[in-house]
Amino acid sequence: MKQPIYYFGAGPAKLPYPVLEQIQAEFLDFRNMGSSIIEISHRSKQFDDLLCETDDLFAELVSLPPNYKVLYVHGGASMQFSAVPMNLLPRKPSQKALYFETGNFARLAKEEAEKYGDIVTIASSAGTNYDRIPDFNRTDLDADASYVYLTSNNTIFGTRWHAFPDTGDIPLVIDATSEILSRVMDFSKFGLIFAGVQKNLGPAGMAVVVIREDLLGHAMKTTPKLLNYDIYNKKHSLANTNNTFAIYVINLVLKWLKNEGGVAAIEKVNEAKAARLYALLDKTDFYTGHAQVAHRSTMNVTFNLPSAELLDRFLSQSSENGLTALKGHRSVGGARASIYNAMPMEGVAALVEFMQEFERQNG
Ligand SMILES: *Cc1c(COP(=O)(O)O)cnc(C)c1O
After folding, report:
1. What is the pairing mode between strands 192-196 and 206-212?
2. Ligand 1 centroid vs 78 CA: distance in angstroms?
3. How far apart are CA 237 and CA 337, in angstroms?
4. If you ran DSSP here, which 8-state letter would residue 43 be given?
5. What residue owns the CA closest to ligand 1's atom 13?
6. Where are the alpha helices (DSSP H) in the chain?
7. Ligand 1 atom with least separation from CA of 79
């Protein structure tokens, strides 16, 4: 079967086609058990093997230092907006945390955290509709804070942190949902990094959480068991029946990535893909990018057209040409091409060609 379309949706997003084929091929019989992956026990040896293998693959792909744990946590990325403050705020008596507000998800994370402690916005780019990563004062990094929080790639607005702030002894927590494993990151610089699975890793509804060991065991007493990272760690993410299918898909995606040459190799491809789209935006006045040039994302490319009418025509004609889900988020408007790891260069090339042709006909 041929890949029918190029899907540019922000999430759930395109998965590597060979992974989908493998899921289909082995769906009725997982590892010669005669049963499907969604039928076998999460306590079976076969599932335990899969889980250990997945931990090892992840650790290998990101060169994870030994004092970090990989957890598979229920509820997607937004659930971590609650879990992070519940697990980390009590580290310090002040129950304070510092948040960078760089987009919708950063704001939602902050609003959730405000239920639990003293949350300070260290910098915000709300005033320019989140078209950049804001500057901040290093002197605002209050040593009393339990953690500093940021969203590494802002999915809706198409910006990203190209370099992360040095927060010294204050643990840095990052939401890397829309760029996990798309670029080389030094995990030893983070206290906690999490990612909802549905953009670069697998199906929706779960998050991968990587936490430095010394940050475990500080949770509020009222923290639900299934949001307590310490319990996930002690029970190898199996305090209850976890999403076995999602973990299986993550496993296959990690193997695919390893086979593609790993994170450094895919990062080069990702940069080349994004560069082609941005080169087009920079060459013409017909398309205008939303993100400031210095803060552009390599995963989500946001742009607009000269009028609402042209945008509508662009969205319907691109879709007819097999380039789907290019509509931007309502808070930015315009169009957005999400080009995660699984989007091949051919998909971006086809989009660039379509955009040039559309401009010729309508510009
Ligand atoms: C998609 C996304 C989320 C929300 O993920 P859910 O799993 O739907 O909660 C959070 N943060 C970022 C950066 C995202 O891109």
Report:
1. antiparallel
2. 6
3. 34
4. T
5. 177
6. 17-25, 45-62, 76-88, 104-113, 229-234, 244-259, 263-283, 308-320, 345-362
7. 9
Residue 255 · residue 56 · CB < 8 Å: no
The pTM (predicted TM-score) of the whole model is 0.97
DSSP 66: T
Structure token pair of residue 83: 């879990």
Helix (H) or strand (E) holding 179: none
Q: State the CB neighbour count (10 A cutoff) for residue 261.
A: 12
For 97-119, what is each residue's pLDDT tens digit?
A: 999 999 999 999 999 999 999 99
List b or e across 135-168, with b for residues whose CB sees 16 or more CB atoms inside 10 angstroms: ebeeeebeeebbbbbbbbbbbbbbbbbeeebebe
Look up tokens 């091409």; give the residue: 337
Q: For domain 19-259, give the CATH number.
A: 3.40.640.10
- Measured CA to CA, the distance from residue 222 to residue 78 in angstroms comes to 19
Structure tokens at 35: 């049963």
Considering the chain, tell me which residue range(s) the CATH 3.90.1150.10 domain(s) occupy.
262-362
Give the nearest ligand 1 atom to 176 CA. Answer: 13
Read off the pLDDT band of 3 (50, 70, 90): low
Just give the CATH number of 262-362.
3.90.1150.10
- CB of 159 shorter than 6 A to ligand 1: no
C-alpha gyration radius of the chain: 21
Burial (Cβ within 10 Å: 0-12, 13-18, ≥19) of residue 215: buried
Burial 328-338 (b: 16+ CB within 10 A, else e): bbeebbbbbbb
- Amino acid symbol at 242: N
What are the structure tokens assigned to 323, written together? 């380039």
Say if ligand 1 is within 6 A of residue 178 CB. yes
Task: Read off the pLDDT of residues 50-61 as tens digits, 9 standing for 90 and up.
Answer: 999 999 999 999
Round to whole Å and give the CA distance between 93 and 142: 13
